[in-house]
Amino acid sequence: MKSQLFQMTLNKKLGLTVGFLGFVAVFAGNPYKGSGATVNVKELAISVEKEVDHVSPEELADWIMQGKADFRLVDLRSEKEFAEYHIPGAENIPLATIPEADLLRSEKIVLCSEGGIHSAQGWFFLKAKDFKAVYILRGGLDEWKDKILFPKLAVNATAYDKAAFEKAKAASAYFGGTPISGVTDQSVQPQVALPKIEMPSQANPQAGPQKKKKKEGC
Amino acid sequence: MNAPFFKFGYFGDDMSLVVAFVIGIGFGFFLERAGFGSGRKLTAQFYFYDMTVFKVMFTAIITAMVGLYYLSVLGFVDLSLVYQMPTYIIPQVIGGLILGVGFVVGGYCPGTSCVALSTGKVDAVVYLLGIIGGIFVFGESFSLIKDFYYSTALGQLTLPQIMHLPYGLIVFLVILMAVGGFAGATWVEKRIAAKGVKS
After folding, report:
1. pLDDT attached to residue A9
2. Taking 80 as the threshold, does the pLDDT of residue A4 lie above it?
3. How many separate domains does chain B show?
4. Residue A116 class from Cβ within 10 Å (0-12 exposed, 13-18 middle, 19+ buried)?
5. Which one, of A166, A171, A199, lies nearest residue A63 by Cα?
6. Cβ contacts of A202 within 8 Å, gap of 6 or more
7. Rounded CA gap, B35 and B38, in Å?
8. Residue B187, domain member (yes or no)
9. Which among A151, A167, A145, A150 is positioned nearest to A86, based on CA atoms?
């Protein structure tokens, strides 16, 4: 037996070795569970202060419209809220289930919630598990609705505002929202229905929310 | 201390360039020793009378796979931090075909052309000029092809994910495939050599 082993060519020896390693691999388990992580509080504090982990609604809208696939958009709200409305392409992982969610540390993850608080908390959980590229949708869905779905143009808008509004209109149309121009007060919350959950390409203009101009101020 | 070192922040950008230089030299050295500084040897792969390219590349894949798998099972590497290229299936298939055609026509792939250049091959100079021209055209026309470039996005895929099989089993299956491929490649080489196709 021993002499047979010595008589083998190098190729056969290598083949045998790798075959053995492969066989052992079947029983050796999953490599993705082989590591722990610690929290570097200072590093986290600095990145929080610098706000490097924020994604603005405009940026996110751009990414979705370009069809980028190098990130995952995770909606932390409950299933019920998710069913009512979510950003196209988002996946629903309620905050409580985030520790055992099927996310990879190498992935770029964008968290969103109603406002920003749950996202920030989810961000911390993931950072503690040593996820590298976790981002928060700034202002959450509230700001998404405000900036992307229902962008507003004040009556006394500057030229710069108007240019930005023209750009926002395109995004709004893509996501099935309604731009609102001629708003006298920025704080007015327009009472408009959320777009139906469909992929934008199939969006039916008929099914979109009704355009309502609200001009009341305080 | 566990890998990947750069992403865990064990060293900065400057050090990463030094490491890249050392790894690059090593990569180039082994490509040259495998005979990949010769366009004849490389194109022979496409006529099946010299399967060295297939064998070397498959050996590299197997070595990296087995190494990464065991190092991460033992806790030395955090595999979830290793970057995976996202899949854009149709653009990547077409890109692969373009690269393949260029490989057969030019005799090199981008990496091996640098190896050939360092051993003083004139055709490698021409090939590298072509690469630089290609980079320029691609860069300048990117806004035109951007939509296509990002189309059919499937995200970061791995074989265990799409086949719903345990990771270790995939490792074993890929090894079986490689060993079978090696035996098959040697067999093909012998058959073609017997026919006397070799130029």
Report:
1. 85
2. no
3. 1
4. buried
5. A171
6. none
7. 6
8. yes
9. A145
The separation between the first and the last C-alpha atoms of chain A, rounded to the nearest angstrom, is 95
- Buried b / exposed e across B63-92, counting CB within 10 Å, b at 16+? eebbebbbbbbeeebbbbbeeeebebeebe
One domain for residues A61 and A136: yes
Residue A218 has pLDDT above 50, yes or no: no
Are B80 and A106 inside 8 Å of each other by CB? yes
Q: B8: how many CB neighbours lie within 10 A of its CB?
A: 15
Q: Tell me the whole-structure pTM to 2 decimals.
A: 0.59
Q: Smallest CA–CA separation between A181 and chain B, in Å?
A: 31
Domain boundary among A144, A166, A199: A144
Residues A116 and A99 in one domain: yes
Q: How far is Cα A113 from Cα A128, in angstroms, rounded to an integer?
A: 19
The structural domain count of chain A equals 2
pLDDT score recorded for residue B131: 94
- Tell me, yes or no, whether A138 lies in a domain: yes
Q: How far is A172 from chain B (nearest CA, A)?
A: 20
- A88: containing domain: 41-144
Calpha distance B19→A84 (Å, rounded):
50
Q: Return the structure tokens found at A54.
A: 């924020």
Contacts A–B by Cβ distance under 8 A: 104
Nearest beta carbon to residue B168 from set A26, A66, A69: A26
